[in-house]
Task: inverse folding
């Protein structure tokens, strides 16, 4: 099974309470921005994150799909 990995850049630093709502994405803080990254189950999950970013009034800087990660399948 493979999951699509995403990297999402927004301006500002997101509080922990907001990060908890981002479908399990991890975050790093760079000067004046936050980078969310990780696997999302499907396009609906990606749109959920993007909708939440918009509802918070955050400026979306970049969304990038990262190379797929292959998971071992049980034999």
Result:
């Amino acid at each position: 099974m493979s999951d699509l990995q995403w990297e999402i850049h927004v301006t500002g630093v997101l509080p922990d309470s907001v990060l908890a709502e981002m479908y399990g994405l991890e975050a790093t803080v760079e000067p004046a921005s936050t980078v969310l990254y990780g696997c999302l189950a499907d396009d609906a999950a990606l749109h959920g994150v993007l909708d939440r970013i918009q509802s918070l009034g955050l400026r979306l800087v970049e969304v990038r799909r990262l190379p797929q990660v292959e998971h071992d399948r049980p034999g």
In short: The helical segments are 16-19, 43-55.
